Amino acid sequence: MSAAMDTESTYSGYSHYSGHSKKAHRQGRDRHKSPRSKDGSRSEKSVTIQTPPAEPLLGNDASRAEEGQDDNWGETTTAITGTSEHSISQEDIARISKDLEDSVGLDCKRYLGLTVAAVLGLLVFLTPIAFILLPQILWRDDLEPCGTVCEGLFISVAFKLLILLIGTWALFFRQPKADLPRVFVFRALLLVLIFLFVFSYWLFYGVRILDSKDTNYQGIVQYAVSLVDALLFIHYLAIVLLELRQLQPMFTVKVVRSTDGESRYYSLGHLSIQRAALVVLENYYRDFAVYNPALLTASKSRAAKHMAGLKVYNVDGNNASGQSRAMIAAAARRRDSSHNELYYEEADHERRVKKRRARLVVAVEEAFTHIKRLQAEEQQKAPGETMDPREAAQAIFPSMARALQKYLRTTRQQQYHSMESILQHLSFCITNNMTPKAFLERYLNPGPTLQYDRDRWFSKQWTLVSEEAVTSGLQDGVVFVLKCLDFSLVVNVKKIPFIKLSEEFIDPKSHKFVLRLQSETSV
């Protein structure tokens, strides 16, 4: 792109610009007017999107105005400028629109499944009641009188329907945790079984009772009771297939994060691949430390520096001369000594982390000591002069802000903690009378993903990649991958081996010993 386009794509952290910059901008635009006209066709086919500066992970929309200094709170405010490095073509825009249409299709599929299940459940509960009421409405005068046994069956049907209603609500009417790519096979089979079962009952009822207008009302009520009993047994079958079958551990899965190699092991039962992936993701948000791409930049830059140190040129097709071989040998010796650089670099980093951690601990302890003194003094003041936890947090925060900022920068955690989130956490600790160690736990030890704001997660939408069908069950040696925008989780499935235990009996009478004493032993 031309210099004028680079000037226009530059963004700033502030909304005002000086007159000198505007004048230079106009001069640069006039100077490069002709090159810009040459690239006019290219600008029509692509759109350059400027990405704003990275915001803190824990910031919220209400506190964005207070976070204008971004990660530089505690020091002087600086303006961050830069140029965009990302562009989106018309094909990318078409792909994004297609992804949006696919997401709308997934929502429609989910709501369609819920609608079908709700209609079928309503039909199931209304069918026994309809079996009892239809004879009373259509041929009431021809029915035989209902005796004591028949009236007792009414109570039985009522309580069984109530139990079935509560069980169905507890098992099926739950908030969905995720949108799976395929249908749940067992749940679909249960819905088909219930539909066929109710349809066959209605077919028999229409042929044998409605057409012939059976006058044996007690038999009709008994027929409705048998339907309710069968529905209860189907509900028990649903509990076994959907809940109990997966409880016994049968497989061990190893989950490895592709970027930093962090891994965990989990035990799973008989599950399909898509449901196993859902369990893995639920445990990932709880057990894995939050993904921090800033920790990977140092190793990448070090590797690029060592790779850039080796340059060999072949001029006019000649072989490498003695000078080239000497350069290769020197580069190899430097590469062999790279482990020393890595060792001293890591040692220096650990020293700086320990030093700044000690300063942070001392600063926080002094600040909390001041809070305790304030609380003792505030109890003697009038109620109108007392401070709430938010005001107390704002009062002591400046004394620890610089030490906390340096520590977060050294450990590369500044993008996860904004000033507003730290103030909220500090006021929370003051409200609940927590110690300085409890306050520092969030910053000294990076927590799991669930500890941070849901709207700022790096991993929100996942893609399941598997060679096997995602509806098939887990098997020994199955490998599938869960991909998100920045990294992926590689899952390897191993079957728990069959364990054979044998018993060996030891007779308690065999535990007898003899003490042997020699005459030469000194007493």
From TrEMBL:
Full protein name: VANG1 protein
Chain segments annotated as transmembrane: 111-133, 153-172, 184-204, 224-244
Coiled-coil stretches: none
Cellular compartment(s): Cell membrane
Biased composition (Basic residues): 19-35
Keywords of this entry: Cell membrane, Membrane, Transmembrane, Transmembrane helix
Cellular component, GO annotation: plasma membrane
Family of the protein in this entry: Belongs to the Vang family.
Keyword Hydrolase: no
Membrane topology of this protein: Multi-pass membrane protein
Chief localisation class: membrane
Biased composition (Basic and acidic residues): 36-45
InterPro entries found in the cross-reference section: VANGL
Region (Disordered): 1-86
Organism in which the protein naturally occurs: Ploceus nigricollis
Comp. bias intervals (Polar residues): 74-86
Top-rank taxon, per record: Eukaryota
